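Progress report, Aim 2. The chain analyzed during this reporting quarter is listed below.
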Amino acid sequence: MAVFLAFKEVWRNRGRFFLFSLVIALITLLVLFIAALAEGLANANKEFLVKLDAQLLVLQKNVDLSTSASRLDRSLLNNIRRIEGVEDVGTLGFSSAKVLIGNSNKTLDVAVVGIEPGRPGSPPILQGSPLLSNSTREAVIDAKVAQETGLKPGDELMLRTIKGTEEKIFTLRVIGLTDSREYLYQPTVFLPFVTWDIIRAQADMGERSMMTFITNVIAVRLTDPTQAAFVAQRILKDVKNVEVTTIKAAYEASPGYSAQQNTLNTQRGFTLLIGILVIGGFFQIQMLQKIPQIGVLKAIGVSNATVAGAVVMQIVLVTTFGVVLGSVVTLLAALVLPATVPIVFNGTSVLYAIISLLLIGPAGGLVTVRLAVRVEPLIALGLSS
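Predicted structure tokens for the chain:
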């Protein structure tokens, strides 16, 4: 009976309910877009670290876990490699540069990462060959660099960096292509460590002679990843003036990451709250307009449970249609958005968002259900003295 009453009223006033479903669809569009934007921005910040084939990072002490600010002597590598539980270690050096795109004046900002071939930090190769030597003028580019520049294995890559006060252009040969590995919102070019040390941006030309054996981070791959906490303690005990952290703690400590995610999550929460208020207000107005009809139903013996069930079913129908419509529109819109818009639809976050949106309908309609149950037949029909 409740289902029949709900369907009957929705179909009879389908124009009105369709328009309201469009409002719910717009709220859904906003919530899903914010969720995808939060995931995309987070991914652009942490993607490189998340995909590392390592479980721990060793950084300089007192740099607030900043991978770019850290400076470590490469002589620490052997000390860390000898520690029980460590399978292998690799250096990671970070810098920035611009890739010259073809013969045009266009450039692409990239993160330039110095690695030790075959050690932790070396990216998997999807096409071409991996880096094999520490000092060759060769490079591996990630998928986003390839997408933006059109480069492929065998092509020449031109990097522009600052050496002292002058711009320098270095030509390298692209030998491999890896998957997307953004570091702090920039696509990545991987270089052998010695080559990276020569090319990286430096404040003055004398810096290299003093810092040739300096790296930013040491990536540590463990024999047993479940023993990360114990191995970290051993490293701290045996190696002085360093900090040891997990991958998760490292990217959460990156500048602006927590503030950015908290801001977007707050926006998503306020959007859901607005949705509850809008849905609740709409159905309450609907209920006030049909109090006489509910009075008739109760006068002929329809129970409160049936009336409440009809109201809840009506709310669920309209909300579900709006959420489905909004989800479809969001996914279609994502297909036409430019690649520069950092949105990523993660299955888990999208599912949580959709479940939240489906729940705000009944939550917003609670007042309406209470109002429907409390309708007195005689008063509603104007027969009470």
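The longest helix spans residues 14-50. DSSP finds 14 helices and twelve strands in the chain. These observations will guide the mutagenesis work planned for the next reporting period.
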